[in-house]
Design a protein that fits this description.
Blueprint: H1 8-20, E1 26-32, H2 42-47, E2 52-58, H3 65-77, E3 81-84, H4 93-103, H5 105-113, E4 121-127, H6 133-141, E5 159-162, E6 167-171, H7 183-191, H8 202-216, H9 220-225, H10 233-243, H11 255-267
Parallel strand pairs: 1-2, 1-4, 2-3, 4-6
Antiparallel strand pairs: 5-6
Helix pairs in contact: 8-10, 8-11, 10-11
């Protein structure tokens, strides 16, 4: 399955961001901790050149803890300020505040030497769809200022979030790039819910999930569904359907319900904390 998704509003979004980048001091990029590299839009990297940077690995509570630590080290070695967050938990925002201040120290010092009065740091918040940008902004600000939803494409226009104190945030819509050169990137983004499920064949996607989980975290499916992972991908999926009662008249497997179950239990963390890619793959 060749997975590509680039709605028309994303072209408008990148043009607007190109105009707005001059208004900000830094770019806060949100990526999904389960796919830290695949979830980074190369257009954002190009757009943010010359700006202070902060990379946030969000949904870290759904990703493997050891993998989280490896990814933070990986990005910091490449010169990024990098923080792990669960955007739903305000407690993880303390580290973000400190990271923003640290990342903007050079800019603040230049302003001071020019005799400019201190002003709030202006930061553009950018990232792929459904990475948790709006949830992050709401947690960081302590109030519901940005629209949220457990599906891609909720934020459609820019909005300034003016916080008391030292930071102003510019929220932007989730942004993908026009073509995934590596099919595995599109697959991983679809699995974590970045791609709109309505354009996908969920049964095929669930089979991709089964195949990938058998490789990256063997034993997880067997433990959750009491099944044999030596089965073929399709046979294993069918066994999950039987064990969970996803059946239609005559006792046949309801593949649609089975696929939805598998995808939901992975995305919600019911299968455990799982990371789909590791830094060693990108050295």
């Amino acid at each position: 399955m060749d997975i590509q998704w680039y709605p028309g509003h994303m072209t408008k979004t990148i043009r607007q961001m190109q105009e707005d980048i001059r208004l900000v001091d830094m770019v806060i990029e949100i990526t999904d901790a389960r796919v830290p590299m695949s979830g980074r839009n190369p257009d954002i990297d190009r757009l943010a050149q010359g700006k202070a940077r902060l990379l946030i690995l969000n949904k870290a509570d759904l990703a493997d803890e050891a993998a989280n630590a490896k990814w933070v080290s990986f990005f910091r070695e490449k010169g990024y300020a990098c923080v792990l967050t669960d955007a739903r938990a305000r407690a993880s925002m303390k580290a973000v505040t400190q990271a923003i201040e640290n990342a903007s120290l050079e800019k603040q010092e230049k302003d001071r030497k020019r005799g400019m009065k201190p002003r709030p740091i202006r930061a553009m918040v950018a990232g792929i769809p459904n990475a948790g940008k709006s949830t992050f902004i709401n947690s960081f600000s302590g109030r519901a200022t940005a629209k949220t939803g457990n599906k891609p494409g909720v934020t459609r226009g820019k909005q300034w979030i003016r916080l008391s104190g030292k930071v102003e945030l510019l929220d932007t819509p989730g942004l993908l790039w026009p073509k995934f050169e590596d099919p595995a990137v599109g697959e991983k983004l679809a699995l974590v819910g970045t791609i709109n499920d309505q354009i996908l064949n969920e049964e095929e996607l669930a089979l991709m999930l089964v195949r990938r989980l058998k490789t990256v975290c063997p034993g997880v499916l067997a433990a959750r569904y009491e099944t044999d992972e030596s089965l073929s991908d399709l046979a294993l999926m069918e066994e999950v359907g039987r064990r969970r009662g996803c059946l239609i008249k005559g006792g046949e497997i309801d593949y649609k319900r089975t696929a939805a179950l598998l995808l939901d239990e992975f995305r919600s963390g019911k299968l455990g904390r799982i990371t789909l890619e590791m830094p060693e793959e990108f050295v």
